[in-house]
Amino acid sequence: MAEEKLPTRAEDFAEWYNQLVIKADLADYAPVRGCMVVKPYGWALWENITSWLDKEFKETGHVNAAFPTLIPLSFFEKEKEHVEGFSPQLAVVTHGGGEKLEEPLAVRPTSETIIGHMYSKWIKSWRDLPLLIVQWGSVLRWELRTKLFLRTAEFYWHEGHTAHASGEEALEEMYRILDIYENFCVNEAAIPVIKGTKSETEKFPGAQITTSIEAMMWDKRALQSGTSHYFGQNFAKAFEIQYLDHNNSLQFCETTSWAISSRIIGAMIMVHGDDQGLVLPPRLAPIQAVIVPIYKNDAEKSKVMEVANRIFKELKAAKIRIKMDERDNVSSGFKFNDWEMRGVPVRVEIGPKDVDKESVALARRDKPGRDPLTRASGKIFVPQLDLASTVSGLLIEIQDALLKRATEFRDANIHEPKDYEELKKVVVDSWALSFWCESAECEAKVKEDTKATTRNIPLNQPEQEGICIVCGKPSKRKVYFARAY
Prior knowledge:
Layout: H1 13-23, E1 27-29, E2 36-38, H2 40-59, E3 63-64, E4 70-72, H3 80-86, E5 91-96, E6 99-107, H4 112-122, E7 131-140, E8 154-164, H5 167-188, E9 194-197, E10 209-216, E11 222-232, H6 234-239, E12 242-244, E13 250-252, E14 254-261, H7 263-272, E15 289-293, H8 298-317, E16 322-324, H9 332-341, E17 346-350, H10 352-357, E18 359-364, E19 379-383, H11 387-412, E20 414-415, H12 420-426, E21 431-435, H13 440-450, E22 453-454, E23 457-458, E24 466-467, E25 474-475, E26 478-482
Parallel strand pairs: 3-7, 15-16, 15-17, 20-21
Antiparallel strand pairs: 1-2, 4-6, 5-6, 7-8, 8-14, 9-10, 9-23, 10-11, 11-14, 12-13, 17-18, 18-19, 21-26, 22-26, 24-25
């Protein structure tokens, strides 16, 4: 059974990505344009992502709830910027039960409006605050250009919506969530990200402040990997979310919203994947280690499987997510390639000689095949004794190595151009970090000239004086420019 190879990333990065998602069994195309079917392996990866985030949110006082998929279209007209931002992407239901509806219903693209409506009913007093709710599910946005996981019409996410008594408390919430997102990306997904504030042009429709985490993909494009928004009283006034304060005076709430979506799976593919397929960070991989027993006949099979089954139980007891590959209709070489394609961090190979030597061969997914320079194999041979400890240690090593590699790659491809002409060259194949006067005109000029956009203004910049790289006017802050997904 032969399997077609992926195109290399250097040959055609877009097609490498498209084929990899399918071949690695993560997702498939749905019969509705722009939608996807997430397959069990892809969903298991998403479950590992959501379970970590869910635990973190609950530890910071958030609770889960569910709101309707269908939202009265009139709700989107209550907040001017919000409706302008989302109206091109709305899918609208006009008929139900064979009859025309009295009021059209929008399939939710995001839930600020319906949640704002409900909060106005639930919040009456300062004692009801803060209200910290997270919804898990999917939303629908009518995207023109789609790509599995990265940008689909329907996608999966969580959306947090919180209401507070003061602006200070709401801002604290916005930054707290941004820190959680950074922690997740760096320590779980092994993706180094940059925290910052979006420009006025790039912020979420209806927000006063939008913060984001931005990651660099292998092709050096940027991917917005999570956002956290401060709305001030915009939505509270639009939906009359008010409370009686300690002095019995009626006040408007301050609100936030925030989200990470299933596009983070696309980020992991594009940051860590190689020409052999997926490379999954061990902390999130659905399968952390796979055992491949190797034998030629029934006698060898009996001998090998006895040891393989014992090792399987030992690794499972150590809480390692383990899989036994007992397929008898494909070769060992096919199995090796298949598990490399799926990005399983560690492969445990056991053959008759390994049984005799009381050892196993371990192959690291982040070091596939042979080193092109030294020709040294990525496999190591280790004793069966205390194998669970060995594999656990190897998983930690791989997780750290992936983060180190991605961080070094990102840092090597961020430049500080000396003038606008150099910036135009840099953003063709890298990121630029430059002073910017924060005018929409200069931002638009860069986009028109280079197709690069402002990604974010990094937080905690030192106080500094500079000049805008576009117009030469005084500037106090630097921004990242890059082409993006």
